[in-house]
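Below sits our specimen:

——
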Amino acid sequence: MTLEAHGSDRSDPLMNAAPVKTAAGLRHVRYEIRGVLARRALELEKMGYEITSLNIGNPGVYGFRTPETMRLAMIENMQQSEGYCHQKGIFPAREAVVMQQQTRGVMTASAETVFIGNGVSELIDLCLRALLDPGDEVLIPSPDYPLWTAATVLNGGRALHYPCPPEQGFQPDIAAMEALITPRTRAVVVINPNNPTGAVYTRQTLEAIAALAERYRLVVLSDEIYDQMTYEGTEFIPMATLVQDTLCATLSGLSKVYRACGYRVGWASFSGDLERARAYLNALELLASLRLCSNVPGQWAVQTALGGYQSIRELILPGGRLHESRAAVIDCVAASPYLEMVRPMGAMYAFLRVNTERLPEFNDHRFAMDLLESRHVLVAPGTSFNVPYNDHFRITTLPSRAVLEEVFGRIDEVLAGYTRA
């Protein structure tokens, strides 16, 4: 039989084979920041268009450099990076995290309760996998960083989104949070400074969350990757300084403050009621062992990063790049006839609202695609962050003022076009 004849034989079982089945557990998993819009942006780039990507907080794309001392620390220790390290991470990196925590007043932290991972992303998955049985619940802010919701679902849990209303400056609604708690609720996620909103939670808010977690014996999972990135003298308060009578995990890393996204180095430092958490921490170590260890070369940068000169301070003060780019966003929103914004006090994002009195038919996904197709700007629709309203979108504030002014001009052009439609 020739290949042509074989290929045309419709009785061939290979011709009638069913498509590869995907896991049912992925049905409700979303990560639209790198989804349909990002894939379309890549297609447009391959066609020769230049895309301004504002969908991801990736400092390297906009010329931010990792401190040279961190690069040198990796180079000098490369010979010690060729084998596996301990499943929790190299000791100097874990000890550096402990010293940072103790400097902040978290005295129960120790190297034995610090886990180094391939970015905070991996540690989010491991922390939830060690904690959740099918049907267990996790309180997650709305808006959220969608990996928290996705990882909860992938590990068999239910994500219960507590509101952080724009009308309250995106501060969590504590009463609404408590109303969601059931006997199946295991943990509460705190993202502070917040992605996507830029909100920095007040001491009163954080104390109320800590009290709630202790009352209901919830594990506190505090995502603090933007901990030193605040503006206008806004105070950042580490959650672990407020949680005593339940387990608290502080998650942070090198990606944002130290502009080292590609190093893929994050950590989870556990504090609070460690005695009741022995079985959980052992389970987490088991999971860490199964992936052998995290990226070793990048871990050698941790001690230098945390113990050395904190160059982030120059960037967030007046005249610094992050400060000035944020100021440009504030100015552009104020000048726009279509946009509103709760002033971001931390992180590297702005969560923008479109004035629906002027544009009552506005839809965030349609707008994001129209902006990409016609003006070649990529943003993240607000509903990507698990909110019930569709009048917001998120941008990163990393570009220069000149780039941002150009971008906002294009945004206003698209929005103006809706008024004429």
In short: The chain has a mean pLDDT of 94. The chain is about 40% helix and 15% strand.
